[in-house]
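Cross-posted from the bioinformatics board.
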Amino acid sequence: MSHITKIKTVIKSLSAVEAACKKIGLHFIKGQKNYTWFGRWVGDSELPEGVEIKDLGTCDHAIKVPGASYEIGLRKHKDGYQVLYDSWGSGGLSKKKVNKFQQAYSVEAVKEQAKKKGMRVTEKKGKNDSIQLELVPIGG
Amino acid sequence: MQGKILVDIDREGNMTVHASGFPGKKCEDATKALEKALGLAIDKKKTKEFYQIIAPFVSERN
């Protein structure tokens, strides 16, 4: 058989977060309970699912991005972590920067799972800034 | 044919997983753990199988 599955990535592995941060030059701060943001809710965007105004700025782990004064927060949600950040210009965090982290996380999470399953991984660049991974059973 | 899994990760970190070459149900088994560990499956499709049909040799002896 052959099948295709589309997956919306959910951050579940902190070791993959750590590996992704190391790979793209971010600093993962395990256990930091606050992330830096504007500090006051101005209502210019929707709140993420399950997050109330009082929760903003709180997290379970944080990521420091070089050159940005604001930080990324990882907040426990269902069976994974939500990625929280403030994209207000002066904080230096853009959607593009956060997406880069999320893509790097996905790569590391796949590699981690492949290793557990005894599969060899080959990485190459794909179209439109995508990354392609090929997983083949070792000895298969 | 050797089984393999191709994972395409877009610039937002979301993935398209394509498994092929695994016999029968092993194909879905091969990606199930991966899907569970990586996130939320939002769409799943079975692709067309490629069969190699070996035509019987027809003798032209008349």
